[in-house]
């Protein structure tokens, strides 16, 4: 019986008792009026019956109120989620409000579901799990090689470089390798970089908590001088007071070597030390001397090894994703170090042969900042605007001053909107990945929680995360260290058989795809949707046939997988296919 039915039966029963009570009260009233004539005599048995009746009525009142309270309280309970509730809940989502699934492309989802059901018992194309272009296998890692023209590091150092890197794990990684390049450029000694504490990330981790310090220093010892700290005579200096502190205001974004020689080198020579405060993406990719470019690659792909505790838990994570299935690739060796020996096949346990890792960028801050709309109607618009007012007041001020604004519809056409979980699922379905595919979900909390993930999990139910593969006790040492948790995601994404991103501008996606290009050969494909082209395809949601949708999606992804050489000015961390980083074998 439903809640409404139970309420109705209780209330009708109560009304019957209530009618009897009124009748008895009437009789009692009439009896008092005729008491003088003794017309009606109420005996002890009748009094007892009335008392019992009132007692029963009281119990019914109490039971009715308890049942109503129970159902009202149930409606306020947190929405339960299958396995991934902690990850799917958005940072500012209303956990105590049950939300219906949000669909933007329901017709296409139905077509995808039917198409995947038909393919369930058919052989999956093996092309999904390999690089489509043979040229990918002709590029081999060689940034660690010694270059004949490079005379090695000079004996005399011009001074010390201090780095305070900002951002999260991936921004810090870029800053470290840029700092190595700058130290070589300026003939300076690099002090092991420090990481600034951020109120956003709230992570006190330092270099040695994430990377192996000694390995880093030994790998680069023939290229630059690296020390763990300043010498005693410089420690007491107020670097800012002597004018040796460099901020973003002093250097343009992606500054050139000429900028460093003109602005930084004189300070270094005069004071013996410079401090780059809040250092990040402050060194351009071109033009840059070949030996400096090679050193950047050597730092990123060879010198930065995760700390043993991260490698060890990363190895356990990979084992559980693959269900102890064996795989020994160059990628795994580089990521897991000596702990790859733990990642072996266990007799009697069959693993999922392959898995796909997906970096789904759909956190509330990214969603709100985009100014796009995602099918949630007026309620969504109000919620995102409230978030902007709380977190991005300066951004809103700039918008008000800007006379020309772009509508959410046009933002989507221009490819400026983050892909929703629903759109990501449609891309995977269009490519032909089967419903039983294991999908490792990396990233932060999904805006909208389960209401947004429902369209995704309806097509691909085998979604796994580090939170539901590792135990609480295993995760406990990492719990308050977002960069160390992000390192686990880095390992899982880089080691995956296929890596799919939804935002090519993401630092994690860029670094992971570059790592896979460098070490993966032709067995580490990366999927990069073109958001402008995808938006054009999805605008035909109401008319496009599924086979046509598949053709267009596959063509879009294939063009993003071309194994071309790095273009001038493009990130060497994202695409290391260039003579300074990799060697091409014919």
UniProtKB/TrEMBL annotation:
One of its GO terms (biological process) is fucose metabolic process. The keyword Kinase does not apply. One of its GO terms (cellular component) is membrane. The keyword Cell membrane does not apply. Its main location: membrane. This is O-fucosyltransferase family protein. Pathway: Glycan metabolism. It comes from Vigna unguiculata (Cowpea). Belongs to the glycosyltransferase GT106 family. CDD domains: O-FucT_plant. The chain crosses the membrane at residues 49-71. GO terms for molecular function: glycosyltransferase activity. It is a single-pass membrane protein. It is found in: Membrane. InterPro entries: FucosylTrfase_pln, GDP-Fuc_O-FucTrfase, GT106_glycosyltransferase. Keywords: Carbohydrate metabolism, Fucose metabolism, Glycoprotein, Glycosyltransferase, Membrane, Transferase, Transmembrane, Transmembrane helix.
